[in-house]
Each structure stands twice: as structure tokens, then as C-alpha cells.
Amino acid sequence: MFPTGPSPCEEERWAATEAHSVYIPSCEPGGAFTTRQCQQGGQCWCVDHTGQELPGTRHPAGGAVSCKISIYTIHTKHFTTSHDCKMIVPHPVH
């Protein structure tokens, strides 16, 4: 059975838009969080599939950090060394 209604990303995006927030989540067409989130005119950071910021990935909006590499590193380490993603700190590519 397929889920109905807005995804968590879409719900957060709607709430942030209604509140005129500086940060409005970016969602994929299917409703998932995009891996790179940015504030309007501010910083960008990488997030996991739940929209939680990955430690050590925050950078200026013009920075060249690859969130796909950061997330791959976390998932690789997660499945091979730990069951707690919060314990793993990604190494952003500069």
C-alpha cells in the first residue's frame, strides 16, 4: 500500500513557508528531502533521509561540498562499523 498525504519534507516545507522562515526545506519530486539544504542567502549543509543535518557539512552557500559523498561515507560506515549514525562524522569534500 502506498502512503497518502504529504511527506515529512513537504509538511516541513509548508510550515516553513507559512511562517516565512529563512530556511525552507528542499524536497525531491517524490517528497524526500534533497541531500543538500540551504538557507536563503546563507549557509548550506547535507542532511540524511529524515532531514537531519549531518555534522561537519555546514558551509557557505557558494561552497563546493558534495552531499552524495558525505552520505555515502556515512552509510558505508554505518553498515560496517556502527548501528548509530549519530556517532559517525562525515568528512566533507572541499
UniProtKB/TrEMBL annotation:
SUPFAM superfamilies: Thyroglobulin type-1 domain (SSF57610). Residues 6-67 form the Thyroglobulin type-1 domain. It is found in: Secreted. Keywords: Disulfide bond, Repeat, Secreted. Its main location: secreted. The keyword Repeat applies. GO terms for cellular component: extracellular space. The keyword Secreted applies. This is Thyroglobulin type-1 domain-containing protein.
